[in-house]
Design brief:
globular, four-stranded antiparallel β-sheet, binds iron/sulfur cluster, binds adenosine-5'-triphosphate, 12 strands, Rossmann fold, 14 helices, binds magnesium ion, eight-stranded mixed β-sheet
Length: 342
């Protein structure tokens, strides 16, 4: 098996606030193989963005990584000097975010912004960067590159701006692209086009991708492997096949059900009842217990560890075997029919 490109182990991140500590990431581990697409899925506030910002050294304000390692191409990103990490960001690891306007400079021509990425990493000289920018614009689906080179971000639609961001992110041919909700702000048709573009670029380059999304449907269409996060912890992790056929965590099943609901007549996202809360102390029991129909006494007293349940499938739930045994009838199970809450 190929060695992992990125391997994150036991990552913890906290934020100090005036009124106490927020435990945003609580010991997550995951890895990404060369050429693989990893999906990180979870509701708002589950710690998806903070996890990747932590490993990229981009935490804002009073955020701090308190434990863990993040080995990328053999180097621990959490222990690099600031300068070394800045060199790697944008060169070896590209990033795109939900709102390109926050990452693009509104006063600078888009061509110059793409060129600048290459020049700042000494990827090529000015002439080389100019020519490559024209190629990149074409590759990301922006026609008439020479004319568009001189446009400003506000002259572009949301979808076109995201294409510019993608061009910037891949300009130095990174081995890993991190995309944090890259299509959330776009309408469904443009979302599909952008995901298709990412896939095409990835296949040409054998680049790895981490795709962060709250949309389970997007993750299952795009990723080789998915991890589901909740309260800064990994609840379940499996290859796509495992997720589609046999999810073993009640939270994952809740997320999946919300996708099924969207696919049916109502087009209304049926949320899992209850709310994800920021943790003000480290989790000592199952963080999902307050919202889980299957919560039993043990769930409220003992933290479920992430454990293998066969093959490459991991789950953090005391009752995973019962959930699995219920198989395709899980909706009934969640409605209270098959397994009692004990
Ligand atoms: N600067 C901060 N100060 C305090 N708490 C923070 C800060 N940034 C993030 N958090 C907390 O960390 C937790 C995880 O946030 P994060 O942004 O990673 O969520 P997310 O899964 O990316 O959600 P979304 O889907 O909304 O982007 C949240 O509870 C959030 O309130
Ligand atoms: S450990 Fe218990 S409360 Fe948590 S998800 Fe599993 S069954 Fe539900
Ligand atoms: Mg986020």
């Amino acid at each position: 098996m190929a060695e992992d490109l990125l391997s994150v182990q036991d990552l913890h991140t906290e934020f100090e606030r005036g009124d106490g500590t927020v435990y945003a990431v609580n010991g997550i581990s995951f890895s990404v193989a060369p050429g693989e697409t990893l999906g990180i899925v979870g509701e708002s506030g589950s710690g998806k963005s903070v996890s990747v910002l932590s490993i990229m050294g981009l935490l804002r304000g009073n955020g701090q990584v308190t434990e863990g390692t993040a080995k990328f191409m053999g180097k621990d990103l959490l222990r690099l000097r600031r300068r070394q990490l800045e060199d790697m960001r944008g060169r070896d690891i590209g990033m795109i975010f939900q709102d390109p306007m926050t990452s693009l400079n509104p006063t600078m021509r888009i061509g110059d912004q793409i060129t600048e990425v290459m020049l700042s990493h000494q990827y090529t000289n000015r002439k080389g960067a100019f020519n490559r920018t024209l190629q990149l614009l074409e590759e990301v689906g922006i026609p008439e590159g020479k004319a568009r080179f001189r446009s400003y971000p506000h002259e572009f639609s949301g979808g076109m701006r995201q294409r510019v961001m993608i061009a910037m992110a891949i300009a130095c041919e990174p081995q890993l692209l991190i995309a944090d909700e890259p299509t959330t702000a776009l309408d469904v048709t443009v979302q599909t086009q952008i995901l298709a573009l990412l896939r095409e670029l990835q296949q040409k380059r054998r680049m790895s991708i981490i795709l962060i999304t709250h949309d389970f449907g997007v993750a299952t269409n795009f990723c080789d492997r998915i991890i589901v996060m909740y309260a800064g912890k990994v609840m379940e992790s499996a290859p796509l096949d495992g997720f589609l056929r046999r999810s073993a965590h009640p939270y994952t099943i809740g997320l999946k059900r919300s996708v099924i609901e969207v696919g049916t007549q109502s087009h209304q996202l049926k949320a899992i009842p209850g709310m994800a809360m920021a943790l003000t102390e480290p989790p000592r029991a199952c963080p999902f217990a307050g919202r889980c129909d299957l919560a039993a006494r043990r769930c409220r007293e003992e933290l479920p560890e992430l454990r293998a349940i066969g093959g490459d499938h991991y789950v953090a739930c005391h009752r995973a075997e019962e959930v699995l045994a219920a198989g395709a009838t899980l909706d009934n199970l969640m409605a209270g029919g098959v397994v009692s809450a004990g």
